[in-house]
Amino acid sequence: MFVSPHKKIIHAIPLFAIFCWVSLTQAGTFREDSLYLAAFWEKVSIGDSASARSMLIALSENPDDELARKANFLLAKMALDSRDFDGVHEAIALGISEPLGDWATYLQARAYQERNRTSDAAECFARLASDSVSILTEEALWNLASLILDKGLIDSTIRLAALHRQRFPDGAYRQKVELIEASARIFLQEYEEAVECLYRAELLDPTSETGKQAELKLLSFKRFYAFEPRPRSNDEIVKRMETLVRVRAYKQALSWVEELLAAPHSSSFDDTLLYWKGTLLATTGKHREAIAVFSEHRRRFPDSPHANDVSFNLGRSAYLRSEDSLAIANFQQVIERGGDSLRLLDALKLLGILYTDAKDLEAARPIFERLVALSEGNSIQLEALWRLGWVLWDLSRFGEAERVWAQLGEIAEESDYDPAALYWRARCFEKMKDSYRASELFQQTQVSFPYSYYAILSASKPRLDTLVWPQGDASSWEAFTCADEAATTPHLAKFCLLEHLRLSDLALREWPAVQSEIGESPGLWWQRAALLEDVGARDQAWLVIRDHLLFILLKGGPKVPDLFWRITYPLDFDDIVGRYTLAQPFDAHFVLGLICQESRFQAEVVSGAGAIGLMQLMPATAQRLALQLGLPSSSARLVDAEYNITLGTAYLAELFERFSGDSVLVLAAYNAGESAALAWDAEFGGETDVFVEHIPYRETRLFVKRVLQNAAAYRRLYPKL
User: Fold this and answer.
1) Tell me: the pLDDT tens digits for 530-544?
2) Span 364-390, average pLDDT
3) Is 145 in contact with 116 (CB distance < 8 Å)?
4) HEC states along 467-495?
5) Nearest 5 degrees, angle CA 611-CA 614-CA 615?
6) Looking at the whole model, is its pTM more than 0.70?
7) CB neighbours of residue 368 within 10 Å
8) Active site members
9) pLDDT band at residue 79 using 50, 70 and 90 as cut-offs
10) Which of 70, 165, 525, 589 has the fewest CB within 10 Å, making it most exposed?
């Protein structure tokens, strides 16, 4: 049944609280008061804030009791959230837990700000600004600078800005402080210094509101202050472009470069500007135009410092347009020059792929062997070994392929390649008629990576009943607990206390400092994912799992909390999916697995290619299906869950009929188009697992694997759908 996001947040509160507080109680921490706080949050979860507040007031009656001090802090936070600003100060005056002293000061400062008591707010922020440990120091410095600027204390504002720049050169508030200092400099008519502040602010992130304000001030500077800002330097142009690319503002960056090229400027900038124009065109998929720009650049600036990058990018654009001769020539130039090791490795990889696609496997083999040797210790080595193994497989050199994939397995721990290498080693032994070693490795794949795509493939293979592989505990949830070490690590102490009080938004702000304090830990990453889920940021929670806990996703383990799986495989819209799969050749689990991969259950998501909604339907396909089903045709309605699922399941039914129930070909067609799937089937169809690995589009290849993996997970987690 579909549950609204708001209700999901409420239901998640007691579920996560139980997991969190049970683990804390086992650690011997907060043993006495967890039940009281759990009861308090249960009241909050059902919307009974009056009773919840009464519980806290009752708990706060004993000023010498630690539980009372925790209750006082919760009272202060509740008071601020409900705009009872006097209540904030009253609760804090009763005494709060010592580790939360800086947070109490912050709550007071916010309350004073809301009441326009700027002097009192400034005093609180000044106390925080002098705290060398608190994570709130940077924000406090910014607030303090803003407040004293409003009071006309110009020199003090400039000194604070300098202190902020010194202590937090890459801080989150750096851009805003530069803008504050610029205002102070303008007041003193120090226009040159103000311009420098504005340039620094704008370059930090031209796409943010603060960056746009800085740019507007620069554009209007002469009109307002009769002062001509200096022109940008070449380095500043490059830095601005790099910043725009980093934040993926490609269209804005391209528009700006074209504007600079059209305006009067020093010809010395043309080298840089043409290089960036070509790079941005390639990044946005305009490869034909990119080839023309890169060709012009190479003609005009043969000795450019960008020459190697231009050759590589020209080759890459040519490769993506299937202009193979041009691509090969440029990649070979990069390889001959040597130079930047990363560019050299990328050029070798793409050249090897070109030879592989052209079925020139003997030419591809030495390219990938060289890539393996040069990329030792680099993440590229994993892909190099993987591709070299496939060249050898396609040459029917199964023994050599097995040895290459064995080498891959040794260095691929905690990556997608780990189960892949194990499975394909088994397939090599199968090809070499060594059934015992093949069965042994198939079984090891199932036991070691039971939730992976390759476990699904291995399940159909013969097993050795006498062979038992130990199930390793892939999870390390107990590696991070709020226990005795909290007394000696200040941020961990605050983090644990905030988490214990169920103030997940505040705990998340402490989390980066805790990570710096105690280092990497699977359990610590899991705490972040769980906290994000608790504040309603499910997609961010999933990204944490995907990026940092992938090995747990593949291996599972008996100690993995249920919440981990609910974040990874949500159960949304299952009632709708169930209705539209009753009489289909596919089940609800398959559709949920597809939706999970396509949209992560975000009904209004639109892809870069224009696909819309839960099942990511293209408007033209949706229009055709709607007409066939006698439904109104409307692209706008594709964000409606039921409408989208109605059309999406109808499209799947068409594909299952066309491809005779072959789910792999159906998924390939769903992602890349029916003509592409038919062409691939004709070119290298046969063994299904081999077919999937040979799909030339990486996106489609991963899509097929992940949907099948997702569907298996949904069957395991929700068998009664």
Assistant:
1) 999 999 999 999 999
2) 94
3) no
4) CCCCCCCCCCHHHCCCCHHHHCCHHHHHH
5) 65
6) yes
7) 27
8) 598
9) very high
10) 165
